[in-house]
Amino acid sequence: ALPISQGVLIPLRPVRITRPFVWLIQGVRDYVRTPVVSLFYGVLFCLMGWALMHVYEEAPAYVLALSAGWLLIGPFMCLGIYHATRCIGLGQKPDLGQSLLAWEPKLSYVAIFGVVLMVLEMLWARSVLVLFALSFDGVPDFKGSILALFNPENVEFTIGYFSLGGVFGALIFAFCVVSMPMILDRETDAVTAALTSFRLCLNQPLVMLVWSLLIAGLVFLSILPYFAGLLFIGPVLGHASWHAYKESVGGDDRD
């Protein structure tokens, strides 16, 4: 790994606006190349969704508030997938056991991101619950929450919900879109990685907007059938995110 000093601006590469679709295709190919590793993490995503519904079955509003919220920690959960995709790029065979320990050499930096993402996710969840309290007399069940979200009579609630999601989602996306793969791949600190990710979003806003909308849309669709879509969509997005990082961030002789 190449050492990267703090305070040094890491160069960014120009990316065409159509490239996010290519990253998805590459993600699908990597899923096929690493079926065991990919499916393992897909099952984890799916099980977390089911566990969320079970734990909060007595407080269904939390399901709507957190079902998308915990997915914002995707960059943290995808470390093992990033490791597998990196191995493919190096011509190595990905190993499930090694992917599970991919975070260990960068524990301190990963821990920083994990704490920050968890705090933001909790703030988002609390904000959604406040929105529920202000919008309804009682808290509907999970099905009722979904229906309320798309009921034309609840347009203010719908606007508020998606506005909150947009603010928190955009903030987390901007600082994390390439930071976690970068920490795994290079000798760099968490602050430099986060600022590089933020600079990428500022320098190429249209490309990153397309990429964020693709991620949000696919995640939303994968949640609807009882989180079953995450078996495939979760790992594919993880693989694709690695390709997004490798193509958009320069300054590494190994690229």
Can you lay out the helices and strands and say which pair or pack?
Elements (H helix, E strand, L loop, with lengths): L18 H15 L1 H21 L4 H8 L6 H4 L1 H11 L6 H5 L6 H29 L6 H8 L5 H22 L2 H7 L4 H14 L1 H19 L6 H19 L7
Helix pairs in contact: 1-2, 1-13, 2-13, 3-7, 5-10, 5-13, 7-9, 10-11, 11-12, 12-13
Shape: globular
Q: Mean of the pLDDT scores?
A: 81
End-to-end distance, in Å? Answer: 12 Å
Low-confidence stretches: 1-6
Q: What structural class do you assign from the helix and strand content?
A: mainly alpha
Number of strands: 0
Largest sheet, described in full? Answer: none
Radius of gyration: 18 Å
Task: Provide a count of the helices.
Answer: 13
Estimated share of beta-strand residues: under 5%
Helix content: over 70%
Order of helices and strands: HHHHHHHHHHHHH
List keywords for this structure.
255 residues; mainly alpha; 13 helices; 0% strand; globular; disordered N terminus
Plain-language structure description:
It contains 13 helices and no strands. Helix 7 packs antiparallel against helix 9 and helix 12 runs antiparallel to helix 13. The chain is mainly α and 255 residues long. The N and C termini lie close together (12 Å).
